[in-house]
Amino acid sequence: MHAARLLDHFQNPRNVGELPPPALIVDVTNPACGDMLRLSVRFENERVAQARFLTRGCTASIAASSALTEWLLGKSRVELRALTAHVIDEAVGGLEPASKHAAALCVDAVKALLRVS
């Protein structure tokens, strides 16, 4: 059974789409399940001003991606380095053990973003 917050993010995803340049765009894939996340972020004054996502995957991955974009807003690169799977897990109200990969996908996307920024 999915948490109510997770279902809300899945049924009403926030920040869906892609930002135009000069936004940074990264693509990550979970090789175990095949879920894919495209994350686009625009920095302004060294903080995340906008974030968008496109995810192809399970309910948990879509919900986690939505929650990730909300968490990102206003964060500095230093704060982005502090992101853990636990943060995403809490943001969606808890992930089932079989869905923990969704939080890992989000963390992987932020790590990729930091490599290109």
Describe the structure in brief.
The protein is an alpha+beta fold.
Task: Give a written overview of the molecule.
With 117 residues, this protein is α+β, with helices and mostly antiparallel strands. The protein has one domain (4-116): Sufe protein. Chain: A. It is 43% helix and 21% strand. The chain is built from 5 helices and 3 strands; from the N terminus they run αβββαααα. The protein has helices spanning 4-11, 59-72, 77-81, 85-91, 101-116, and strands spanning 24-29, 36-44, 47-56. The chain has a 3-stranded antiparallel sheet with strand order 1-2-3, with helices on one face. Helix 1 packs across helix 2 (59-72), helix 2 crosses helix 5 (101-116) and helix 4 crosses helix 5. The longest helix has 16 residues, at 101-116. The radius of gyration is 13 Å and the shape is globular. The N and C termini lie far apart (37 Å). The model has no long low-confidence stretch (mean pLDDT 96).
Tag the structure with descriptive keywords.
117 residues; alpha+beta; Sufe protein. Chain: A; 3-stranded antiparallel β-sheet
- Return the domain count: 1
Low-confidence stretches: none
**Number of helical segments with 4 or more residues:** 5
How many runs of DSSP E, i.e. beta strands?
A: 3
Computed structural class: alpha+beta
Shape: globular
- In sequence order, what are the helices and strands, one letter per element? HEEEHHHH
Mean pLDDT across all residues, rounded? 96
How does the major sheet shape up? 3 strands, antiparallel
- CATH-derived topology: Sufe protein. Chain: A
What Rg, in angstroms, do the CA atoms define?
A: 13 Å
What top-tier CATH class fits best? Alpha Beta
Any idea what the CATH architecture is?
A: Alpha-Beta Complex
The fraction of residues assigned to DSSP E strands is 15-25%
Q: Strands of the largest sheet, in order across it?
A: 1-2-3
